[in-house]
User: Which sequence fits this backbone?
């Protein structure tokens, strides 16, 4: 198989890279061992939630934090990309999602504050249409959960949200309510199951009947992300019109409906752009010549070996958690090209998500996202690194994971399409 750009990985960075390169009218192929992490992710775009990291104070605006990053951390992916590329990446994403029909709202340089699945207030940059309301605009909030659903607890969300009003400098009042879907569930159902049920008119009728006396025009109704899968706009509009109030979806535990919608819409777009996808393909060999990659061999799920030859390659395999890096007792190894993974590998905190040195480990790159060795020399001129494979940032503490994926995926796709 021959193409202009070969993308390895189907997380957000890989899909954005493929979409960007395809929009340059390049022939693009994606190969991946799995479906990517978007299906378990929130589907929101966190650009930079906390900086400096040690303060743990959520950022309201992020432009000044980027300026501080430039002086303090020159190898951070945002610094490597630069503010101009950051702006272009977010503009591209906004325009792309509007074109797809699943629009996003927000800006890279100004955070929004939304409840998490347990009601904690967290900063994020961009949210899908179903999460667009601003908490500060409402005096009354009703958190609704479904008794048959086993992964969302409205009273916990309401209690935590009520306690954190000072974060928003607001004085809204929060209540919680259980409603029933009216089904005979033979198993504990999750948010994805409920979202499918919501596309049935009779289910929505039962919910409206239980809520219509509880809400009014100044009420914000908060629900788990269950407002349909493909027919989300119909479901949302139906509730808003019949209840005469605004509705906000918030993320749930995996499986993630909002993450699923984002992934499936991006996949549908790139397939319309004639991008070829090879799922469940394990890379078994690479053809390396001095300073460049010439070809990659992969084995498909049926055991057939396929050889891919491209002008340029994008590595977007997701680092440690995505399976792109193999973690040993004393070192981390990049799986495909065996590129040196640089950074401290220790674990210094009992909490996995708290200030771990290994979170910064990754592949060091040039300003063109080309991988460098420990002496700073370019390893492969036609290989571009994107997303969690990159060195120099902590997506958990910074709350920057999807932002870095978007920005570097966009940049890698453009560079690979242009050839440098």
Assistant:
């Amino acid at each position: 198989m021959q193409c202009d750009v070969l993308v390895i990985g189907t997380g957000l960075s890989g899909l954005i890279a493929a979409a960007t390169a395809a929009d340059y009218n390049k022939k693009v192929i994606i190969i991946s061992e799995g479906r990517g992490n978007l299906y378990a992710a929130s589907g929101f775009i966190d650009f930079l939630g906390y900086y400096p990291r040690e303060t743990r104070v959520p950022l309201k605006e992020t432009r000044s934090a980027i300026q501080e990053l430039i002086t303090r951390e020159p190898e951070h992916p945002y610094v490597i990309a630069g503010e101009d590329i950051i702006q272009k990446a977010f503009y591209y994403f906004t325009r792309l999602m509007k074109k797809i029909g699943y629009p996003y709202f927000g800006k890279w340089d100004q955070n929004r504050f939304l409840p998490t699945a347990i009601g904690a207030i967290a900063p994020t940059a961009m949210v899908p249409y179903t999460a667009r309301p601003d908490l500060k605009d409402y005096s009354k909030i009703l958190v609704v959960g479904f008794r048959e659903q086993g992964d969302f607890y409205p009273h916990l969300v309401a209690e935590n949200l009520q306690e954190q009003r000072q974060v928003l400098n607001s004085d809204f009042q929060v209540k919680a309510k259980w409603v029933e879907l009216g089904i005979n569930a033979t198993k504990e159902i999750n948010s994805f199951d409920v979202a499918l049920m919501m596309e049935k008119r009779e289910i929505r009728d039962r919910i409206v009947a239980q809520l219509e006396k509880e809400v009014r025009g100044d009420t914000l109704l908060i629900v788990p992300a269950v407002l349909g899968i493909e027919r989300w706009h119909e479901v949302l509009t139906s509730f808003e019109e019949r209840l005469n109030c605004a509705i906000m979806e918030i993320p749930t535990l995996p499986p993630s409906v909002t993450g699923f919608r984002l992934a499936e819409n991006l996949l549908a777009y790139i397939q319309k752009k004639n991008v070829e996808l090879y799922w469940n393909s394990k890379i078994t060999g690479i053809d390396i010549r001095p300073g460049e990659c010439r070809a990659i061999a992969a084995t498909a799920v049926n055991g057939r070996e396929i050889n891919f030859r491209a002008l340029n390659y994008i590595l977007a395999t997701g680092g440690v958690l995505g399976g792109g890096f193999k973690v040993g007792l004393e070192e981390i190894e990049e799986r495909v090209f065996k590129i040196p993974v640089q950074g401290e590998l220790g674990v210094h905190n009992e909490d996995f998500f708290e200030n771990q040195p290994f979170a910064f480990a990754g592949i060091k790159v040039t300003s063109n996202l080309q991988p460098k060795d420990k002496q700073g020399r370019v390893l492969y001129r036609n290989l571009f690194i994107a997303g969690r494979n990159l060195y120099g940032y902590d997506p958990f503490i910074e709350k920057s994971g999807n932002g870095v994926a978007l920005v570097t995926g966009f940049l890698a796709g453009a560079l690979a399409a242009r050839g440098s």
User: Anything to note?
Assistant: The radius of gyration is 22 Å. The first strand starts at residue 2 and ends at 8. Residues 228 and 359 are 35 Å apart (CA to CA).
